[in-house]
Amino acid sequence: MKLFVVVFYVKGKGKKFQKRENRLRNPSCIGGINKVNLERWCRLRGNLLFYFKSKDPWSEPLGVVVLEQCQVRIDPPMASPPLTTDGHFPFYLVFDGGLCQALATISDLDRSSWIDAIKVASYEGIRAELNALRQCIERRRCYKPNVDLQTWRLQRAQVLDVAEVPICEISLACDNLLCDGHGCSPNPSIVIDVYMSSAKLWVQYGRTEIIEKSSNPGFLNTISFRASDGLTCDSRIRFTVFDVRERVSHTAVPIGSACVLLSAIQDSSRLRIPLVSRNQSTVGFLSISTWALEAEDRGSSTEHTPCRAPSHNNAQVWSHRRSQSLPPRLGVKMRLPNQSDLKLLYSSPFMQTYRFHSGLGGDICVHEFMAESRLCFTFPHQLLGVWIQQEKELLQEVAGMGELREPWHSRQVELLDRHLHLLRLYSQARENLQAHKGSLFKPSSRKSDRSLEFAPVNLHLQRMWVHNDTLNKADFYDWITVGAFTAHSHKSKNGGLIKLVQQLKESPTRSNSNYQITTKISMANDAIQAIKQLRKEVVDGMKILMRLAKEKQTVGMLPICEDMIRKTRILLSLWDPGLVEEALNFVEEYKLIVTDDSGVGDDLTLDSSGKPILVLSPFKRITQQLTSLNLKSPDLDDFATPCTPRNVEDIWHVSDSKLLVNKDSNHADNNLLNTSEGVKSLCSEIRGDDDTNFVIFPDCEESQNEVSLEELNSNSLNITNGNEKRTEPDTNRMFLDTNVMCSSPSANYYKPTDEPEPWDITQLNIEASVMCLVSKVKFLCGRCGSPAVRLRQNSKSLQKSVITEQPTCSVNNKKLTECSKEVEKISKTVNCVTKISKNGNKFTDGLDLNKIVDWAAELRPSMRKLRQAMDGLLKTARLTHSVFRVQEDPKAAQRVCNVRYRRDVCFSQSLTSLVAGLMTRLWCHKPDPTFVTVLSTLGPLACFESLLSYHGNEIDMWGDMSVAVEDLRTVMFTLVRCPSPVSLEPQPVPKVSGSRNSLVVSLPVPDSLYSLIPSRQILSFHVTPVFFNIGINEMATLAESLGATRAQEASNIDNFDRLNEYYLRYRKLNISENSNVSNGRFIGCSSQVKSLAELMEDLKISIHSGKSKNVEVLHLASQICRQMKGFRFTSCKSAKDRTGMSVTLEQCQILVDEYHLAEHEFQKALDCMRSEGCRRENTLKNTNVRKYAFNSLQLLALPKLYRPPAGTYGSAQT
């Protein structure tokens, strides 16, 4: 059947009509217009009406009228005067914009024919006619219209299971297809339909690629028939061969068809059937090659142990066929690897299968997968919880200072206000992620959506399974494809994060006072982080000591004591006493005097009668909300302090008798900080003095949300349970509870009414507690005469007080005297210990080892004192930190907050993508001892490939992504054993804890991998990320021509240096490059694959060559990454078009290098994957258009290997 294109032709010499034109008779006379009617020849082509220069049909075209959004009328519109007839028959074209074009013909019949032709010439008219013809065709059919396989599965609420073994798989080929009337070969493509007897309809089950100009095509796409789709042996399969006349619109005409039963296909390994046209004539033949598949036998293997290469005498028969033109061996079955764990991490899988020819005469079976990660929204939700907790704790830290006097009062309130606004932003973003419904990926069409800005764009797993039995080789290859890690909705054209961070570092000069404050803030924050870490480690040591004491085992006690002594020495040397003295002086000078424990200061106002009125100030308004402080992490339900009863009273309590505030409103505000609406309410009421300088994106540096790593170790000692009801004896044991230590306000902050402890007293308390504890441990170990250990040698320097002179006040003088006496008392106690070292130890005098029954009870008081002393050290450090933060310049702090928030957005996207890649490797691959060795020694390599152009808005994306990838180096990953399958969580979920500067991500691993970890201990590692970017589109051409890519080139060189350092360390592991094990089969290193040393040398030469669009850098980096067991990430702006070109190219390059894909098949395989594979489906998921968003100009600018095949690109959303 031929396809005819209908064109409106004019009979005779053509249609003549008169066209009214307006011409200026005299240009100098404005408004002097003469109406002239001219006779012209016109021709209609589609929706274009051409009019010629004269009435001669052979004259040149003068203009064109586009017949869209217009109506044809015989009567003139109201705004236009009627056309004088003069024996002619006029009609009018009235456009939607109000324009009117008058036309006329020489007869009424001509006018009617022109009107009818113009009415159906527009696109809307053609589409209406097309729909009418389709309805007519459907009415002539006796069955329902075709539906595709995706729609069929949606109707049945069915999801593709990649672990399902298909009934069979087929490849197709045709021969002797008829040519057209001109002798040209067709462009064949086969559509496979399956008749579903249950629904009595045909389902389009699949289709092949298009082969250009061939009467004997062999198709590379294969079709897998699955029982889950409702197929049985009696299912009818229809093959229809089409001749594709136009690839863009997929306009095609049927050549012929054939219908067979699925059982006939299964029974024959090779079936050749005739193709019959509609007039029942034979137009060619169809060859169907069939092979069976079965699941890989895991029952007799030991996949939970390290994989071993099969012996040479293995008699197992594998699938192998010489070529598509020769029949396969009979009874051959292909074994598919098990991918049941893939659905634990990914959803909505899409699968495409291929069969390629190898240069050795065999076939290469390829299965291509694409799936959405379940972590796309859940992991950023966890990360936002960490940052929310951090902002709450920073808010609590500043409030713990107490209310300050002016000029610092307004800055303190402004600082609190910034934290509240940031709480609102983070809380709202977290709620948006939690409320998200639908697909588990963020489409590129929503990349500028602020509500989901913390989620990565278009995050997918791209997976390829390759099998070549001639080489006895099979393996999986994974890519994480994701959009650029950037804040699309934030301010652009500022260079991105890499420029903003650089500006923050260069903005303050060393002579500027703000630079000094910034330095002090940084020093205080670093000291707090170190104190928290050391405190946790000391408490861990005390836990082990407590366990050994309960068991009365002395082995191992003394090394723990030595480690505690070393760490407490570090604790005592962390702080500069001058900074602490400066902070304490500041607090005592500017803090409002509090006369009672109500939290109300002396800033009172008077009423008309002169009596004081206690009005709740903005500061007190905030601190009043801290009475219900659920400022602990949502994951920690233990709010009890280590030294107080379970039911803790309000920390910042204001007496109701002194406040002129309605009790109902106080009750309503009780939990404002626990909901985003409450935070919004606070933000609307709490304002600083200067509201114009308020920053929408504030940020801060320090976090306190910690979850101890001991909880991840099943062998750790759990001394207390946070859910138990605690009595007084239990309260005394809470000093070793790490959760309580992290969430308790009294263990981390001063109350506004507290008097800060002098620095010397804090240090002496720590020293005395450690001395006492170590002395008792040595006594229990049998060293009764061991002297006490001194942590510091210079005792004279400890005797002077750090309390400076304060304004004259009897209260302060009294407190100063008490503090001095306490310092003197503790110093005498410490010094007294060293004087009696010859006669024993004062801490152990009077103890009898034989009479001590409970060793743990003997050590517990000293441990409690040490914990309290370390808490005092942290509280003073926090107070110092908050003092310096209040003194920071507000505008500088706002700039830092803006950059910090943007950095959080980008980091959330990069970390989510990295965790998705890690979890895929841990769960969806067979255990590899070599990979475990790399994890435990070096940490894995993560290679990020980007195709952004260093021009326009993509400069910001590149800058954001550079910093986001670099920040991944600070994250620590910990492998923990996954709980049993009978668990509350159906999927393995990574957990994030720690603080912004020291995040810890706990990755659950299956038992098969956990058994390979040495000693089955907790394995922690850091990732080494490298980031290479090469632009490939027309904007990259422009940037390179302007010489504007130096920053990109410098970044690539820096990342090569990091990659080279990693390679040098990897080389020391002596891992063999000539063999590997994957999927239970031996993999010999292909002769076409270069060694690591050669690849590194080639990359060094290429990266310093300065070539234009040097994509060789990306190719070499990807090969190096795979050989060193690394992870591959590919990105562009939205991970859709350029990413699709890059991934498919890398897939085909792997087939060439490692599986001997025939050279003449390379371009065919590349075009097939791009036209029919998963990346084409990805464009449909993102933009609802199954085309790559490239135009003709971009196509010319792309490197040759990155160009899509014809018909797969066009006008689409970028």
UniProtKB/TrEMBL annotation:
Domain C2: 141-275
Family recorded in the similarity comment: Belongs to the inositol 3,4-bisphosphate 4-phosphatase family.
Organism: Zophobas morio
Region: Disordered, residue numbers: 299-324
GO CC annotations on file: cytoplasm
One Gene Ontology term of the molecular function aspect: phosphatidylinositol-3,4-bisphosphate 4-phosphatase activity
PROSITE patterns for the chain: C2 (PS50004), PH_DOMAIN (PS50003)
Protein's UniProt keywords contain ATP-binding: no
Domain PH, residue spans: 39-123
Pathway the protein takes part in: Signal transduction; phosphatidylinositol signaling pathway
Cited Gene3D superfamilies: C2 domain, Pleckstrin-homology domain (PH domain)/Phosphotyrosine-binding domain (PTB)
EC number of this enzyme: 3.1.3.66
Pfam families: C2, PH
Coiled-coil segments on the chain, per record: none
Protein name, entry field: phosphatidylinositol-3,4-bisphosphate 4-phosphatase
Domain of life: Eukaryota
SUPFAM superfamilies: C2 domain (Calcium/lipid-binding domain, CaLB), PH domain-like
Annotated InterPro entries: C2_dom (IPR000008), C2_domain_sf (IPR035892), INPP4 (IPR039034), PH-like_dom_sf (IPR011993), PH_domain (IPR001849)
SMART domains hit by this protein: PH
Record keywords, A-Z: Hydrolase, Lipid metabolism
